[in-house]
Design goal:
The protein is mainly alpha-helical. It has one domain (2-106). It contains five helices and no strands. Helix 2 packs across helix 4. The longest helix is centred in the C-terminal third of the chain and has 20 residues, at 82-101.
Length: 113
Amino acid sequence: MSGDCVNSKTTYYDYYIFTIFFIIACSLRLYRIGNFELWLDEAYTYHISVSSDFIDYIRNDNSPPLYYALMKFWGQFAGYSETAIRVPSAIFGAMCKSACNNDPLWGVIGVQN
């Protein structure tokens, strides 16, 4: 039964693999990220982020407010270009993809196969 669990001891090699997957995933997601027009959900996020009634929008929207708060902060830091609006989602997506592709790292967070 010892083969059923993921080894909870993670080596530096596992972190290197995670880093390689993360770099590849980021590269694929960030390549030409600003070449296309905004989609409806991205435009809506932009509208809420730049709105002076930010709190009212969050209060009346059914979506979790943390994403809009993050985007408001990110917009003040990086601006509101098409590329800047898409970068946080691309980075979080790359992190999730690289974490899912690297099974040994699941032991770090306590998940067993």
